[in-house]
Specification:
single chain, alpha/beta
Length: 306
């Protein structure tokens, strides 16, 4: 029934949490499962958002009926234990927690398993679908390398995190932009990045920040499910493809977003083709310029145009 809550799923989730704690689970001080916690609609803010300000949290959205979830879940739990506090794994049973399931859908995620990374109060789409352990391990290593490179890991992120000697303090203008992003104040963040670019028009990081804010503002006004359905039903509607590419990008489906717009460029002409081309260039700005996916898509765009 629409709006009904599966109480059986909630009981099952509670039982799993009790079993973890009995074995020395999260908060119990034991070795097995000490870095894995089951999260509910009510505890998400405390266990994930607030905790992420001191240690990164990977959030595993799963369900008991999902076969791939049962493959990915144990891998993530094993790696969380190996990390020994460098990051925490939060597990969300979407059947037992409808509010979080709805939030996942609003992000444009169309299936599980889905894993998000939450760092400093910011949620980043991370993994879509199951994968073998070596691939998951590599993806997590690359994630933390990228976060460290971007300087957005929390200061106390895990026992191994140390401040680099001689590290320059954060520019106050950048600080205002980052703080606005963390708090969800997109208008303030946009104004801060624009201020940076007024004084330094070629500032790459400010350009990326502004592109990310603009993307978030566009997606915030969209209904992800309706957008993706319209794009599937009307492949010739360039605006529908543009909106669908935004949804895909924020949900971590980067190559899919690029390929969608490349296809639109190839099969259209005139103003429609130009709109798809310009939007693809706009999406490139969200990622680092040396990202291999950007390079691949740029080559694809040149081939499509010439």
């Amino acid at each position: 029934m629409h709006g009904a809550i599966d109480l059986g799923a909630r009981q099952a989730a509670a039982k799993k949490q009790q079993e973890r704690q009995a074995k020395g689970g999260a908060g119990a001080g034991g070795d097995s499962g000490a870095y894995v916690v089951d999260v509910t609609d009510q505890t998400f803010n405390t266990e994930v958002v607030e905790r992420s300000r001191t240690v990164p949290v990977l959030v595993d959205f799963w369900a008991d009926w999902c076969g791939p979830c049962k493959q990915l879940g144990p891998i993530l739990e094993k790696l969380a234990d190996e990390a020994a506090g460098k990051w925490i794994l939060a597990k969300v049973d979407i059947d037992a927690n409808p509010a979080l399931a709805q939030y996942m859908q609003q992000m444009g995620v169309r299936g599980i398993p889905f894993v998000a990374a939450v760092v400093g109060g910011q949620l980043l789409p991370f993994l879509n679908g199951a994968a073998p352990e070596p691939q998951v391990r590599q993806a997590i290593d690359q994630l933390f390398e990228a976060l460290a490179k971007e300087g957005i890991l929390p200061e106390d992120a895990g026992p191994e995190a140390q401040e680099e000697p001689g590290q320059a303090p954060l520019d106050p203008v950048y600080g205002a932009a980052e703080e606005a992003l963390r708090s969800g104040d997109l208008d303030t963040a946009k104004a801060a990045f624009q201020k940076i670019l007024e004084g330094s028009p070629q500032d790459t990081e400010a350009k990326r920040g502004l592109a990310l804010v603009d993307l978030s503002l566009r997606v915030g006004s969209l209904d992800a499910q309706s957008v993706m359905q319209k794009a599937a039903d009307q492949p010739g509607d360039v605006q529908a493809q543009i909106e669908a590419s935004d949804i895909e990008l924020v949900s971590g489906q980067i190559e899919e977003a690029f390929d969608r717009l490349l296809s639109a460029v190839r099969r259209t002409a005139g103003d429609d083709r130009d709109a798809a081309r310009k939007h693809l260039l706009k999406l490139f700005e969200v990622l680092p310029p040396d990202d291999p996916r950007v390079g691949k898509a740029r080559r694809g765009l040149q081939s499509a145009l010439f």
